[in-house]
Amino acid sequence: MRLRLLLSIIAAGLILAACGHDEEPTTNTAAWHTITVTTEDATRTELSETENRVAWSGEDRIVVFENDKHVESTDASIDREGHATFGVTFPTSSTPPYDYNGLYPAESLFCAQWNTDITSLKLSLSATQSPTTTSFDPSCDLLIAKQIETSEQPTSLMMRFKRIVAMNKLTLKGLPADGTISRVTFIIPDRTIAGLVSVNLPTGEVEEYGAVGVAHNEITLNYPTPITTNTPIYFNSFPVQLTEGDSFSVRVVCNGATYTRQVTIPAQRELRLEAGALNTLAVDMSHVLPIIPESYTPGTLYNRNGKKGVVFAIKDFPIYNSDYTAIVGYDSYCYIMSLKEEDVQWSTRYEWCNCISQRGDYNTYDPFDYYGMNINDYPAFKWCMAQGEGWFLPSSTELQWMWEAITDGARDFDSPRVAEYNKLLTDNGGEPFVETYYWSSNETSESLVEVIAFMDDSVVCLDPKKDEIFTARAVYRFKIQ
To answer: DSSP characters for 385-431?
Structure first.
């Protein structure tokens, strides 16, 4: 639920940022005042290492505040020296004074509708980043400008930006020389290194890293096109200082295998990831034994970590970049079904539960964790949850994956594959599938629910009453490492 809420909040922020003005310009040009904003620094901040300079890009956009109003700029125009120039338009005003503040990138402004207090402004640093082989993910390079005060609305401004996050360059040693890296995760237990940051724009001071509860202790770097093992790993983080006895971990997916190394800071040493600085660190993976991912095949028994069931699906889910505009990788999940099933009511009440997701785990837990529903009124959910932590009533989509699996795509209950699944279930103390309707966790109204017909030539979704009795079979999902 938190992920879905965060996605919706971020999406709302992006829509609001795109809208920009409180009013749209009209043909009455006198009502609008355009300001040209030029960056004082050609490289966002002054970095001494030329090869690691982070230059402005023509696709960059900033947000500029004029007193209590803010707008998103046009795309940048870059001159030969690397200075960026942006255009912003505010309503014409003759009421001084005027205070101007700026931030980069525009998409870092979190939930613009309510986030308007420039003395405690919330910006977002994503915990999922997409660096290149030579630089950082620009959407995660948080900068704020020094405030400018004027007595009249200017036609141009020169803004000087400073970085409020740490720039980090990680070198990995000891991995296979012919290997390629698809993902790197940097973890510091019990520390906040990404999430929301609260800044006071007028003073340029950071009030809090990890503000309003959105905090992460790990940052994942995705490479849709795998990189060679000698390529530097660039990422941005909140500043942090580790001293003797503190530790951090690096997890690397190389050639499909996972290498994890925990590093403990030795006596009289420290690791400092400083804001505005280029911080370098190296980790030797030479003696790390790789973990080869297990293979999971539909129609086989899964029995480990206290979970026992039959595998019925392997599904890939996209990983998005920080502003959710592009897919940067995929996570694979394994789905298993419970050995047993139960004939129960979906619920004993007619009320809307907001169970509409394709994720059965959301549908199963959200009504009780967030909406205050009484679990005793929902027998199908209660039975699935009673199978153990993480078990849920599958969505109609997940039930269709199950039906496809047990019939090998034939959607025919007489398929030999059904008999194979049923034998595996009964041989392990479970109950076989029968031709019946199976409850999904998707409701269609206050009183109706989708069911999937496990019958010959059928995946029909019907809408019976919630208090009727049909069959429930629980599902569990886990990420394949």
So the answer is: HTT-TT-BPPPHHHHHHHHHHHTTT---TT-HHHHHHHHHHHHTT--
